[in-house]
Amino acid sequence: MGTAGKIIKCKAAVAWEPNKPLVIEEIEVAPPQANEIRIKIVATAVCGTDLYYLLKNMHKDSFPMVLGHEAAGVVESVGPGVTEYQPGDKVIPLFIRQCRECRFCKNPKTNQCEKAWGVKDMTFQEKSRFTCKGKKLLQFTGTSTFAEYTVVSELAVAKIDPAAPLDKVCLLGCGVCTGYGAAVNTAKVEPGSTCAVFGLGAVGLAAVMGCKAAGAKRIIAVDINPDKFEKAKVFGATEFVNPKDHKEPISQVLSEMTGGGVDFSLECVGNVAVMVRRTRFFVTLRIEDCIITIPHAVFSVMLWSPV
């Protein structure tokens, strides 16, 4: 492409400081260096984690930054040493990088790449390829997809089918793999089991899909928005519960529905109160309990096991 090797000026949503609105700015994106790839972002989603970092005021040293980590785009140019990717390839940036060669990448029990943790990438200020008004911008999780262009490590890219619709597959960058993987890989849902999925956003729907793929017999979708139930049915939910329709605690409702409780429970809301209400009941039954989302509060309850 004609922009290869040159600085690209483009628009980005910049977070100058925590708890403040993002500002659309013109930024400069430097060319990729050795083992790096510059990507034109075509579609990006907004994840709760982006809002968490912006609003919770827990990472003051991370500003200013460009957020975003759930996207899809097209390779614009590659740096020296990159051989697996070419300009024009459709790709998904990865916030969990994998070299596919180290002992951890080859181990089916983990995906925490040894090389990714040991190497400084664009997450660190001195390595950032973003500049705005003469100031370096940090790159969130090494991806920063709230920009028209971004630069990532070659370890942080997944090549996808050229025919894939980028406005849809961008969700594979976080939400879909988070929910689906939680059901299949973390909870290890078993064939014939009964599952409860709390929250029917993108992560929850993916968890429902994962439960179905794993062979669950009953998949109970729990959400306070009944408009989501039809879509959940498409993904594999067999039953639906709206907590607002019941006076009893949701744990009691599910216990009565299932004759004692579900086999697998997946929390996809990120609400501490929901987690606590579930855990008090489900831990007693010794079922598999999987909390998927990042809670937006601090636990202030005593955890116990009465069994």
Automatic annotation (TrEMBL):
Domain Alcohol dehydrogenase-like N-terminal: 34-160
Cofactor: Zn(2+)
GO biological process: formaldehyde catabolic process
A molecular function (GO) term: S-(hydroxymethyl)glutathione dehydrogenase [NAD(P)+] activity
InterPro entries listed in its UniProt record: ADH-like_C, ADH-like_N, ADH_Zn_CS, GroES-like_sf, NAD(P)-bd_dom_sf
GO cellular component, one term: cytosol
Family: Belongs to the zinc-containing alcohol dehydrogenase family.
Pfam families documented for this protein: ADH_N (PF08240), ADH_zinc_N (PF00107)
Keywords: Metal-binding, Oxidoreductase, Zinc
Residues covered by the Alcohol dehydrogenase-like C-terminal domain: 202-274
Name recorded for this polypeptide: (spotted green pufferfish) hypothetical protein
Organism of this sequence: Tetraodon nigroviridis (Spotted green pufferfish)
